[in-house]
Amino acid sequence: MAHAGCQMRAALMEETHDALLQGRGDFPTNVVVGERLLSRLSDFTGSEEAPFVVADGITGPLFAEFLGTRRGLFTLPRGEEGKNLENLSKIYAALAAAGLDRSGTLLALGGGVVGDTAGFAAATWMRGIRLLNCPTTLLAQVDSAIGGKTGVNLPEGKNLVGAFHPAEWVFSDVECVRSQADEDFRQGLGEAVKYGVGEEWGFFGWLEENARAILRRSLPALRTLVAECSRMKLSVVAEDEHERSGARARLNLGHTVGHALETASGYRWRHGDGVAAGMMVAGRLAHRLGEFREEEPARLERLLEAFRIPCRPDMPWDEIAPFLARDKKFTGGAPRLVLPRTGERCRLRDDVTLAALRDAYEEELLKAR
Fold it and tell me: Are residues 305 and 218 in the same domain?
């Protein structure tokens, strides 16, 4: 039966041009990238079991019916305001009312807020149940849906409460992102640029060459974009699933400053925009330390501007500093920063002073004025 299932999935790939990316080593997630996937989940999972669905006020009405039979549907508020302990408690109550036990499946249908919150509910309900993820935003498809990180925010900062709980399957239907508002779509582009600067410079070049097609939301370009980012993230996570060796920290390029901007601004700064600003600061600092050629910060800025992503911080250092100190990579109040390197993978450094980070940040801040 297992062999027959593999044959069926292989035939499906040929007919639909779907991309199937399989987790490596001990990391269990499989990712499917394609079109019209939501009505075909059982073709891949081999299960007709009805899942309990967590969505939001837009993704539920738009996409839930494509999934077929379900055990229940819980609707989260939109945005970061939905990603908190109060809403997590409401999900637990809905799972209890639906009678979902340890054999049940929870399906996250939406963007990163839905995936993170529903994933944490799956990680902790009955000490862990099966999770499927159907990301409907570009940001979730290229990043947050893959890797097993789940969690909710506290007033003190983002993702301070969470757990590692990888989805068994991630279904990235690129048709879903064609209807995203431009401001939402560009949040995923910020993370996509991170993979080019931080992991593979060949992919950075591909982004430069295909920026117009991506902005037009050409389906072939979107399939390549999402599949390549998914491939890179699966590879990194397989090296360091639980962030013990430091390899996975590479995925946090731009996030130290980005998360601080998000939280300090009350989420006026969106995630991909914050990461873009954080990458510019990291690039400036890397150039000062001899890791980044002189022309690279300008090249990075050109690509971000081509994608219409704001990439200059606009808040004084003193306003973001308290939130920087809560970054999980800080130790003893000293930063451990992910910095880009020309032509190579980025790396985590623990020899950069807070004063040096402040100088690079304030230089970028001046350029915004």
Answer: yes
3 state SS of 146: coil
Give the mean model confidence (pLDDT) for residues 154-158. Answer: 82
- Catalytic, 14? Answer no
* Percent of all residues in the chain with a pLDDT value above 70, rounded to a whole number: 93
Q: Which domain holds residue 279?
A: 181-369
| Same-domain status, 191 and 329 | yes
Closest CA to 277 of 299, 251, 255: 255
Same domain, 131 and 221: no
Strand intervals (E) in the chain: 19-22, 30-34, 52-56, 72-76, 105-110, 130-135, 149-154, 157-164, 169-173, 337-341, 344-349
Which of 146, 162, 180 terminates a domain? The answer is 180
> 252 an active-site residue?
yes
Is 259 annotated as catalytic?
yes
Beta bridge partners, 72, equal 52
| CA angle, residues 333, 335, 340, in degrees to nearest 5 | 175
**Residue that is last in its domain, among 145, 180, 215:** 180
Look up the pTM and report it. 0.89
Between CA 69 and CA 31 the distance in angstroms is 22
pLDDT digits (tens, 9 = 90+) for 289-311: 999 998 999 999 999 999 999 99
| Residues 306 and 166 reside in one and the same domain | no
343 exposure class (CB count in 10 Å sphere: 0-12, 13-18, 19+):
exposed
* Catalytic residue status for 17: no
Q: Based on the residue annotation, tell me whether 248 is a catalytic residue of this protein.
A: yes
pLDDT at 9: 42
Q: Which residues sit opposite 162 in a β-bridge?
A: 151
CA distance 142 to 164: 18
Question: Which of 348, 198, 186 is CA-nearest to residue 269?
Answer: 186
Q: Which of 71, 252, 284, 341 is catalytic?
A: 252
Q: Looking at the predicted structure, is the pLDDT value of residue 106 above 90?
A: yes
Say if CB 267 and CB 73 are below 8 A apart.
no
Residue 271 is a catalytic residue: yes
pLDDT at 222 over 80: yes
- Identify the pLDDT of residue 11: 42
